[in-house]
Amino acid sequence: QVSLPRPTRPGITLDGPVLGTLPNEVKQTLQEISAYSQDRIQAYVEARRKEGKAPDPADLAKLRQQTREELARVLTPQQVEEFLLRFSSNASALRDELSQLQFFNVSQDEFRTLFRARDAFDQQLALLGDAADPATALRRTDLERQRDNAVRLALGEKRYLEYQQLHDAAYRDAFAQAQQAGSPETAGALYDIQRVVADEQARIRNDASLTDEQKNIELKRIELEQLKANALALGQELPPEPPSPPTPTRTHSYRAGDTLLGLA
């Protein structure tokens, strides 16, 4: 077992079928490991602050790795995983990421599957810190590629595609619109329309041959075309055409000697 100072802060909750059945002495040791880990990190952050420096991500990753090694001395691999699923920074970061992916609802089992696929790669990436030398950059790219493949295998092609698409804020907007209309299957079509419109809007705004008034007219036209395209994709009625501008008129007061030919 690991001999550490008694924790002075509120303890972590150790319950459930895996951690809840641990012997009391093991639970106490876990409380001590957790408290000591937090104290180590806090002391490091404070020391860096006094030096006028931000915490180095690689140093933080090493401190967290030390905590994992301490856990592995008192827990089985299954128990370590359960602990990390609840309390690790990687699990917390994954929860934050998934909370941003509206409409990608995961079950407990799917969250566990995602964590298993990513955790080892996230740990290695964290240990690289912010280093930007060519060798480290190449290593980071390779780890990210491996992590991506692991997530694809863990989720399966359909769920993986949803996971990737929902990382795009524009796709989330399209999905929300499709779901609101009761046609979530049209999200892809709405997203494609949105991308085409965005490209066309950028082209118009950057067209130096157009006056500001002409640009506004073209942007309004594109806006109407998008409404029509969205309606067709959703199977809705097309929006009404805007009324034609009135024909310009001119008032003339009759004077003696005026003729129709002359006025024309």
Describe the overall structure:
This protein has 264 residues and is mainly alpha-helical. It has helices spanning 16-19, 24-50, 57-72, 77-87, 89-100, 108-128, 134-155, 157-165, 169-180, 187-205, 212-234, 260-263. It is elongated and about 115 Å long. The mean pLDDT is 89.
Explain briefly what this protein structure is.
This protein is mainly alpha-helical. The protein has twelve helices and no strands. The protein has helices at 16-19, 24-50, 57-72, 77-87, 89-100, 108-128, 134-155, 157-165, 169-180, 187-205, 212-234, 260-263.
Layout: helices, strands, pairs:
Elements (H helix, E strand, L loop, with lengths): L15 H4 L4 H27 L6 H16 L4 H11 L1 H12 L7 H21 L5 H22 L1 H9 L3 H12 L6 H19 L6 H23 L25 H4 L1
Helix pairs in contact: 2-3, 3-6, 4-5, 6-7, 7-8, 9-10, 10-11
